[in-house]
C-type lectin domain family 12 member A (Erinaceus europaeus), 269 residues
Amino acid sequence: MSEEVTYADLKFPDSLKTENIEAFENFEIKETPVTSDVSHHRVLALTVLCSLLLIGLGILGSMFYVTSKKQMEKLDELQNVNEELQGNLSQLLMDNMNNSMKINNLSHTLQEITTKFCHELYRKNKDHKCKPCPEKWLWHENSCYLLTTTMKSWQESKMECSAQNASLLKINNKSISNYIKSKKLYNFWLGLSPRYSSMSDKNLDSLIDSPDWNINKTNKSNDKLYCGYLYGYNVYYSHCKTEIYSICMQLAGPVKIANTLSEVPDERA
Ligand SMILES: *[C@@H]1O[C@H](CO)[C@@H](O)[C@H](O)[C@H]1NC(C)=O
Ligand SMILES: *[C@@H]1O[C@H](CO)[C@@H](O)[C@H](O)[C@H]1NC(C)=O
Ligand SMILES: *[C@@H]1O[C@H](CO)[C@@H](O)[C@H](O)[C@H]1NC(C)=O
Ligand SMILES: *[C@@H]1O[C@H](CO)[C@@H](O)[C@H](O)[C@H]1NC(C)=O
Ligand SMILES: *[C@@H]1O[C@H](CO)[C@@H](O)[C@H](O)[C@H]1NC(C)=O
Ligand SMILES: *[C@@H]1O[C@H](CO)[C@@H](O)[C@H](O)[C@H]1NC(C)=O
Ligand SMILES: *[C@@H]1O[C@H](CO)[C@@H](O)[C@H](O)[C@H]1NC(C)=O
């Protein structure tokens, strides 16, 4: 470009007189340099544009790089938070499980304490409302016992017990054997299987864990069968038609905490 300018400057002093023509000529001659000038400008502009574009692209690229790097960092951060949250969540679930286990254990312990306390109250007052057995039934350990007051045949007694969700008494451990013996009961039907023949009397304790308690189904009518009954410490067999008392037993329900602790305020007063 500077070359062109000097060329024009040089021409000017040479043809001062024929300024007009020169000017015209110059104009004419200059036509080609002018067009080359324009294309040079265009090239320049294009170059500048291209460079600008390149720079822009570069900036964009670096911006993209920076932002994507930032995004990656954010993603990593989020991933970490996610992992932490999952960790915290499983921790919470663990704590929750432990807590519900503790609550279960506590309520189990509370139930045991309540039952023991209710046993104490029952020892002093056989009709205490904390007793987990129906009215008139006796409570021992976790079972309830009813001594019937009307005399019936063994079959009828059996039906009477099952009508109350109970069964004729079976002795399956020393504790219940001792409890029943302490009651000194005479002529009470037991839940022994009816037999085809009578047999000599047996001590109640000798029948613990005996298969005689498994009641066999039989087609024989009652009057041909012999049934076992309690007589003090012993067991005898008699015709099943005989009418005597009986002992029913059923599992005790859970001791109600409210019924047991209703005593406490009275004792504090
Ligand atoms: C995870 O729990 C810890 C403490 O137990 C707490 O400091 C942290 O903020 C928790 N993380 C999230 C993501 O909540
Ligand atoms: C849950 O309880 C067990 C023992 O009962 C204990 O070893 C464990 O650390 C407890 N976990 C939490 C998260 O408290
Ligand atoms: C709950 O009791 C059981 C045994 O009865 C025990 O194995 C368990 O660790 C107890 N759990 C808690 C949380 O105390
Ligand atoms: C003995 O048997 C009775 C009746 O089945 C039951 O309620 C009681 O829990 C038992 N006692 C023991 C110590 O096993
Ligand atoms: C016997 O138990 C059944 C359900 O098991 C109950 O519906 C019924 O009321 C009970 N009967 C007595 C007399 O307790
Ligand atoms: C019940 O039947 C079994 C075999 O069926 C027998 O071994 C057992 O002695 C019977 N029990 C009584 C009390 O008859
Ligand atoms: C009981 O008697 C019926 C018919 O009255 C018979 O079908 C059944 O087999 C008998 N059961 C036994 C155990 O004898």
Q: What stands out?
A: The pocket of 2-acetamido-2-deoxy-beta-D-glucopyranose (ligand 5) is lined by residues 164-165 (CB under 6 Å). The chain has two domains: 49-131, 138-252.
